[in-house]
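// run 5 | inverse folding | seed 20
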C-alpha cells in the first residue's frame, strides 16, 4: 500500500495522530459480519475522571444535516465531560445510554446530588455498506472501545469508520497532527503547541476529490472508465453531495471555550481543500478541546488556572487545524481497505485506483 501524500508545509508530531497531544487516547470496536459493517470509536481527552475534570471545548456546525447528541450543552457551557463517541446514525441513543451508565458508575451522585451528565455522541450514516436498520451496535461495543483506548490506534476501515464512504471510495477513520509555532514578531512569545485531528470521513463526490490541489477524483474516474467500471455508481450530474464528516480537534494550547470554537471553525478550511462544498445533505461538525486547562465539577474542586493565549497568538493554531484536518482526511482514504457489506455493496480504497 503506497504511503499517504503529505499535505501542507507544517511539521507533524511524532506519530502524526491526534494522540500526539499528550493524554489523548483513541479506541475502536469494529463490527464486520456480512451485512453488518459498523462500529464505535472513542476519544479520551485525558486519563482522569472526565465528569469531575472537564476540558474546555468549542464546536462549529459547518452544515447541520446530522443527529449528534450533546452539542447543545457543549456550546452553552463550553466543556466536555464524557469521552467523545463516534458511531452510525441509528446507534447514537444506545451509545449515549452506555456513556450515562459509565459516568454514573464512576460518580454515583450524578443525577441526584449532582447535575446530570451530558453524553457526547457524534454520527455519520454508514447505511450504504452497513445494514443500519439492524441496529447492531450495543452498549458493550462502546465499553469495549473504551477499554481499547490507547496512544497507538488503527486508521481506515475500523471502529465507527468501518462502513463509511468518502468521495465514492472507502472512507473511515483518519488522524494527523501539526506543530503550531509562533513566528515573525511573535516568535518566542509562546511555546510550540500541537494540534491533532481525528476524522470520521463519510462525504464527498468523486469528481471533486483534490489532493494537494490535484484533481485526483477526475483522474480516478478516467481510470475507472478505461476498465469499464462506473465512475461513481451513485453519482449523476445533479446528484447532491450526501454524507457527513465529524472532525475532532485536540490541542495542548491553553484556550478557553470561545477560542476553541474559533479553532473548530477553521476545520472547514482543511475540509474544503479536499473538495467538499458542505452540500445540503452533508452533516459537517467540528469539535475542538484543550488539554491545557481543566474545569472542576463543583465550586472548590481542583481546576487548573492557566491564562489563555492572546488572540494574536491564535493564527499558527488556525493554520495547524486546517492542515491537520486535510491530512487526516487523506490518511483516512489511504488507510482504508475494501469493504463489502449490505446487499453486496462494495467500496474500494483510493489505493486501488492509483495505477492503471
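// decoded
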Amino acid at each position: 500500500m503506497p504511503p499517504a501524500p503529505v499535505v501542507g508545509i507544517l511539521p507533524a508530531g511524532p506519530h502524526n495522530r491526534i494522540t500526539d497531544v499528550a493524554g489523548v487516547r483513541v479506541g475502536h470496536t469494529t463490527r464486520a459480519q456480512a451485512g453488518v459493517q459498523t462500529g464505535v470509536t472513542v476519544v479520551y481527552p485525558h486519563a482522569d475522571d472526565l465528569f469531575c475534570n472537564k476540558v474546555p471545548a468549542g464546536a462549529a456546525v459547518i452544515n447541520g444535516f446530522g443527529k449528534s447528541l450533546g452539542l447543545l450543552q457543549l456550546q452553552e457551557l463550553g466543556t466536555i465531560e464524557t469521552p467523545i463517541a463516534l458511531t452510525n446514525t441509528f446507534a447514537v441513543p444506545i451509545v449515549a445510554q452506555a456513556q450515562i451508565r459509565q459516568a454514573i458508575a464512576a460518580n454515583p451522585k450524578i443525577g441526584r446530588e449532582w447535575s446530570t451528565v451530558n453524553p457526547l455522541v457524534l454520527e455519520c450514516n454508514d447505511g450504504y455498506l452497513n445494514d443500519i436498520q439492524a441496529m447492531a451496535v450495543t452498549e458493550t461495543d462502546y465499553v469495549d472501545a473504551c477499554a481499547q483506548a490507547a496512544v497507538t490506534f488503527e486508521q481506515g476501515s475500523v471502529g465507527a469508520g468501518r462502513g463509511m464512504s468518502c468521495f465514492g471510495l472507502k472512507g473511515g477513520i483518519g488522524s494527523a497532527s501539526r506543530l503550531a509555532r509562533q513566528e515573525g514578531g511573535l516568535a518566542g512569545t509562546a511555546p510550540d503547541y500541537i494540534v491533532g485531528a481525528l476524522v470520521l470521513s463519510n462525504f464527498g463526490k468523486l469528481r471533486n476529490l483534490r489532493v494537494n490541489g490535484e484533481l485526483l477524483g477526475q483522474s480516478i474516474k478516467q481510470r475507472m472508465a478505461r476498465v469499464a467500471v462506473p465512475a461513481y455508481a451513485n453519482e449523476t450530474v445533479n446528484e447532491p453531495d450526501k454524507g457527513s464528516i465529524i472532525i475532532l480537534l485536540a490541542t495542548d494550547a491553553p484556550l478557553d471555550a470561545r477560542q476553541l470554537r474559533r479553532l473548530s471553525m477553521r476545520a472547514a478550511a482543511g475540509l474544503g481543500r479536499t473538495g467538499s462544498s458542505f452540500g445540503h445533505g452533508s452533516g459537517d461538525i467540528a469539535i475542538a478541546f484543550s488539554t491545557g486547562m481543566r474545569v472542576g465539577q463543583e465550586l472548590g474542586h481542583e481546576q487548573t488556572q492557566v491564562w489563555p493565549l492572546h488572540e494574536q497568538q491564535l493564527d499558527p493554531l488556525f493554520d495547524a487545524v486546517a492542515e491537520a484536518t486535510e491530512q487526516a482526511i487523506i490518511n483516512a482514504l489511504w488507510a482504508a481497505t475494501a469493504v463489502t457489506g449490505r446487499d453486496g455493496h462494495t467500496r474500494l480504497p483510493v489505493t486501488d485506483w492509483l495505477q492503471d
